[in-house]
């Protein structure tokens, strides 16, 4: 690690991991309520715990992205951050907003609209934090070396922040409300966050495999082009049944089918880089997370997304457990695992230690990934039966839910494995110390280029 200001990333990563723990524990409680519906029904009703589960997820992923930007931009731009102080103020604002939102949810204050439930003042706080971030990181990049990685990262972060404006637009008309809602939700995970993912993955590949920068750059540009080409009009796959014109059924089906391409490219990119690279980097766990992320993203987003994206299929599967199966594996592969990859890569340097606890960290990869895969299969089976009984035969919703109870029990088991893996990851990254580095700074072998 060359630049002092990169250290702010550590605070971001710690906060992210704390919320990661809250998120998966919240998921586990929500999963138990599916098994035993009256569990905590007075104290912590399902809608509240679900809100905490999904909001904590989004916030910690964003904290991870911000931290990753503060970590990698100084190195790419070859200069210190514009302002370390602003970075800490931004983190403080985000954490106050998060705690405020959670406190609000616990007493029933929220704005509705899944994922965008934050009270209005928190939404403004997030906006201010985003502006601080954009100023800080853009001034850093503008005054330093510009690389494809920072260009793509900045483009992604600028666009995703601009999309936040649609979180404030909430018309009376339910069709329009849903339309703007998807501008945030879909255009985040299936357009702008993909650019952030490509940039971080590109950086990790550059560092871990030692391939030439030019090769990484060519892949990056193709990934960005295909992501935007498919993802923007791909929003149409959410416009099938919300009261928008019928042509969206074709536009959505066709363009969202192309959305598989950037995810396939990211997976191919990671494997080709490892195959071509000459370097034997000591941080094997970071490499495992990077390859795992791009692979699981391809299955979760690409394959499980395509599964129900054609309007003829979605007519039956819309809003069933098939959606939940896809949502879990896609978010886990693309964004959770990617964040854990950059934490695994950066934390030893940020804490000035060798890449330590590799075995524990890799065990946590298999526990979490295995758990998520099993959860996805179980929910896919549940969703298939649900679709048939509810949408084809026409049975009542609650009767159908009763016959799915065995799947919900298995989902809870899979979830417990994920939680165990998550706690093991956090433990392996921040608790155990194996060996202190004797020579400071650049002599750190883990920090090698
Ligand atoms: C890092 C891992 C996880 C990620 C990325 C994740 C992501 C999500 C997302 C995106 C949703 C909303 C789904 C939708 O609207 O279709 C959700 C809901 C949910 N998650 Fe998770 N989750 C994770 C871990 C867990 C765990 C460990 C459990 C434990 C069983 C769990 C149980 C649930 C439940 C019960 C819901 C509510 C589903 C519903 O309303 O029917 N999740 N999660
Ligand atoms: C990393 C990228 C992705 C993530 C994180 C993601 C996540 C999600 C989540 C959480 C939902 C549920 C939203 C809700 O109704 O509350 C959803 C819905 C959906 N996703 Fe994705 N997704 C991704 C990529 C894709 C791709 C590439 C496709 C198509 C090839 C796709 C197709 C769909 C469809 C069709 C729905 C609507 C399901 C329904 O009608 O109930 N997704 N996605
Ligand atoms: Fe989408």
From TrEMBL:
Residues 13-431 form the Cytochrome oxidase subunit I profile domain. GO terms for biological process: aerobic respiration; electron transport coupled proton transport; respiratory electron transport chain. It comes from the Bacteria. The keyword Transport applies. Keywords: Electron transport, Heme, Iron, Membrane, Metal-binding, Respiratory chain, Transmembrane, Transmembrane helix, Transport. GO terms for molecular function: cytochrome-c oxidase activity; heme binding. It is a multi-pass membrane protein. Pfam families: COX1. The chain crosses the membrane at residues 12-35, 55-74, 86-108, 120-142, 149-169, 181-206, 218-241, 247-274, 286-307, 327-347, 359-385, 405-427. InterPro entries: Cyt_c_oxase-like_su1_dom, Cyt_c_oxase-like_su1_sf, Cyt_C_Oxase_1, Cyt_c_Oxase_su1_BS. The keyword Cytoplasm does not apply. GO terms for cellular component: membrane. It is found in: Membrane. Belongs to the heme-copper respiratory oxidase family. This is Nitric oxide reductase, NorB subunit apoprotein. It comes from Cohaesibacter marisflavi.
């Amino acid at each position: 690690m060359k630049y002092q200001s990169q250290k702010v990333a550590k605070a971001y990563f710690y906060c992210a991991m704390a919320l990661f723990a809250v998120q998966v524990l919240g998921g586990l409680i929500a999963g138990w309520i599916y098994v035993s519906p009256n569990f905590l029904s007075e104290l912590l009703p399902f809608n509240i715990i679900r809100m905490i589960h999904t909001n904590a997820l989004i916030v910690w992923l964003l904290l991870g992205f911000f931290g990753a930007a503060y970590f990698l931009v100084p190195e790419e731009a070859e200069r210190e951050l514009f302002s370390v102080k602003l970075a800490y103020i931004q983190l403080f604002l985000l954490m106050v907003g998060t705690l405020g939102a959670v406190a609000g949810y616990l007493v029933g204050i929220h704005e509705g609209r899944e994922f965008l439930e934050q009270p209005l003042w928190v939404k403004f706080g997030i906006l201010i934090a985003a502006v601080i971030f954009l100023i800080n990181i853009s001034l850093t990049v503008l005054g330093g070396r510009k690389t494809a990685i920072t260009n793509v990262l900045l483009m992604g972060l600028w666009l995703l922040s601009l999309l936040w404006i649609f979180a404030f637009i909430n018309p009376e008309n339910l069709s329009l409300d849903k339309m703007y809602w998807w501008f945030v939700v879909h255009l985040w995970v299936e357009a702008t966050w993909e650019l952030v993912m490509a940039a971080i993955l590109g950086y990790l590949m550059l560092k871990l495999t030692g391939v030439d920068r030019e090769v990484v750059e060519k892949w990056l540009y193709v990934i960005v082009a295909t992501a935007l080409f498919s993802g923007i009009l791909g929003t149409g796959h959410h416009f099938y049944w919300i009261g928008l014109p019928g042509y969206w059924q074709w536009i959505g089906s066709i363009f969202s089918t192309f959305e598989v391409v950037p995810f396939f490219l990211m997976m191919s990119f990671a494997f080709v880089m490892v195959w071509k690279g000459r370097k034997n980097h000591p941080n094997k766990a970071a490499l495992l997370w990077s390859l795992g992320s791009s692979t699981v993203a391809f299955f979760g987003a690409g394959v499980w997304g395509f599964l129900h994206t054609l309007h003829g299929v979605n007519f039956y599967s819309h809003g069933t457990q098939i959606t939940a199966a896809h949502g879990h594996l896609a978010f886990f592969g693309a964004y959770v695992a990617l964040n854990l990859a950059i934490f695994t890569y950066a934390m030893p340097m940020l804490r000035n230690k060798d890449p330590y606890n590799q075995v524990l960290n890799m065990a946590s990869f298999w526990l979490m990934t295995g758990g998520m895969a099993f959860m996805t299969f179980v929910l896919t089976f549940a969703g298939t039966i649900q679709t048939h009984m509810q949408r084809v035969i026409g049975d009542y919703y609650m009767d159908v839910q009763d016959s799915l109870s065995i799947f919900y029990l298995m989902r809870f088991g899979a979830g417990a494995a994920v939680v165990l893996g998550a706690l093991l990851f956090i433990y392996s990254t921040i608790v155990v110390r194996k060996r202190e580095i004797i020579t400071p700074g650049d002599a750190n072998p883990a920090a090698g280029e």
